[in-house]
Amino acid sequence: MTASLRLFLPRDTTALALGADRVAAALAREAASRGLPVELVRNGSRGLFWLEPLLEAELRGERVAFGPVDSASLPSILAALAANPGNHPLYLGPVEEIPYLKSQQRLTFARAGQGNPLCLDSYRKLAGFSGLERALRLDAQDIVTAVTESGLRGRGGAAFPAGIKWQTVLDAPGEQKYIVCNADEGDSGTFADRLLMEADPYQLIEGMIIAGLAVGASRGYIYMRSEYPRARDVLASAIERARARQYLGNNICGSGRAFELELRLGAGAYICGEETALLDSLEGKRGVVRAKPPLPAIAGLFGRPTVVNNVLTLAAVTTVLAQGAAFYRDFGTGRSRGTIAVQLAGNIRRGGLVELAFGATLRELVQDYGGGTHSGRPVRAIQVGGPLGAYLPESLWDTPLDYEAFAGINAMLGHGGVVVFDDSVDMAAQARFAMAFCAVESCGKCTPCRIGSVRGMEVIDRIIARQAPTENLALLRDLCDTMEAGSLCAMGGLTPSPVRSALAHFPEDFS
Fold first, then answer.
1. What per-residue confidence (pLDDT) applies to 1?
2. Predicted model pTM
3. The listed CATH number (3.40.190.10, 3.10.50.40, 2.60.40.1180, 3.40.30.10) that belongs to domain 5-98
C-alpha cells in the first residue's frame, strides 16, 4: 500500500484571507484525480504572512515548503514532490532553513505552525504542559519567585514586571481571586495575540492555569476582541478539550487543585484594551476607565484581587516554568529580558511575525526581515507601539528594541506593532489621525481626552490650512501638555505622542 503524502496548510485567519481554504479544496480534488493518498493537516501559521498560503510537505522526515501557493500551482507542486521538489519555482527548501525564520529566537512561538493547534497529544509531544507539571510541584510563592526572577514584563504595552503584579495578588487577602487575560488586541499593525491563540491555544490555557496556581485564583477569563471569529472558535474548542482531559476543572491533572476558564467576547471598543475598562466590560457594564487606586491587583474583577495580563505575557510564563527563570533571563538586554514578538505591517514587503531577544534594532527588522517597503519607495517613518506610538525618523532606527532605550527617545514598544510608511506619507495627516482616533475611541470619562482630542483635530486642520500657523502650533503643544497631564488613562495621555513626534521629526509637513 502506498504511504500517504503528509501535507500541512494553515487555517490561520491570514492564510484563510489569502485563499487557504480554496487551496485545500483544490488539493483534495487534484489528489483524488491522481489517485494520490494525501493526509492534509490544517496547522497554525508560522507567521510568515508574506508567504501565505504556505504549503508544507513531509519528505523523509523533513518539512519542506512552497509558497505562496494557489490552486493553479498545485498540479505542478504535486508533480515536483514526486520527482525533484527543488526544481519548482515556489520551492522554499526546508522550513526551518528559511532565513526569515531560521534567524529568529522563538520561545513563545516555537510551536506555531508545527501541527494541528487543537491536538492535545501534539502539544504534549512538543513539550506542552511541562511548565504546568513543574508548577504543580511548587508552592505558590515559588512560582511567583520564578516569574519575578525571570525578569518577565507585561507584553501588553505598559511593561510592568509580571512578578510584582503576581506577588501583590498573592499577598492580597480574599477567598476568591481571578486571572484575566487581555486578548482585546486592537493596536494597529498587531496580530501576535491572534496568531498565538490560533496556532498554539493550549499555551495560553497553560499559562493561565499556572497564574491561577501562583496567586490562589480558581477562575480565569479570556476577554477576546469580537473581530477574531477564527481565534474564538479555536480557543473555545481548546478550552473544552482541555477540560475533558482534566487540565481544567476541580481536579487539575489529578492534583486536587481547581481552575476554571471562560471565554468572553468584547464589543469592539478600543478602550476596553485598558485593563480597568476591560474589567467593567467583563462585569457587564459599559467599558469605562476606572480611577486608580485601588489597583486591579487589590480590587479588580467584581472587587476581588485580580491578575490582568495579556496573551503573550501569560504564554511566556510557560517557558519560564518549563525551562527555568535563568534560561528566560539569559535572553534580552538590560531590564528587558526574554524575547519580543515584533509584528511587521504597513507598507512592508515581507510582513509577518518576528520573535527576537530584546536588543535588535528597527533598521534590522525593517530592512533585513521586512525587506523594505512593498511600494519599493524609501522608508520615511516607522510607528512603533500602535496608534498612540511615536513616529520615528531614520536617525532613530538604530535604537535597540529595549523598553528603557525607547523611553529615552520619547517612544514606546507597546505590544510590538511596527507600521512602516514610505516617503509619500503626509505626517500632518498622520498627526491628525492620532487625534481623530482618540476622539472616536475615548470612553468619554475625562475632559482632556474627550474634548482635547476634538480640539486637537480642529487645531491641526487650521495648521494644515495655514491659518495663523505659529499661534496654532503653540496652541497644539499646549493642548498636548494638558492631555498628557490631565487624562485619566493612557488613551488620552499617549495620544500626544504621535503628534509630538510628527512635529519634532517631520516639521516640513506642517509648513
1. 41
2. 0.96
3. 3.40.30.10
